[in-house]
Give the backbone structure.
Amino acid sequence: MGRANETAPKFCRGCGAEILIIKTGTFYGRVVVEAEPVWIRQESGGDLFFTADGRGVHGHEVGDAMDDPDTECLFVYIPHKGRCPNNGKAPRNRQRRPSGYGR
């Protein structure tokens, strides 16, 4: 039996946002990314992004790639970890048990 389709959209347990899981080639293993890709201008020292094939690239997000036709832009995904308010963790149920429970 194979794994479930990793390119199918899923939902974050922490914030409910739509996410994708991209399998990377080396260091990162699998990475949780935002479902909507963005255009970036590739530059060293920029933020970390991931391509659809799992390659990590650094760059800066650009508004619209079609504004300047001379700019070479990449279509990439933003890691979800930095954007999730709960860091991808499901909220804990903090209800107290009634007194005398389990005795």
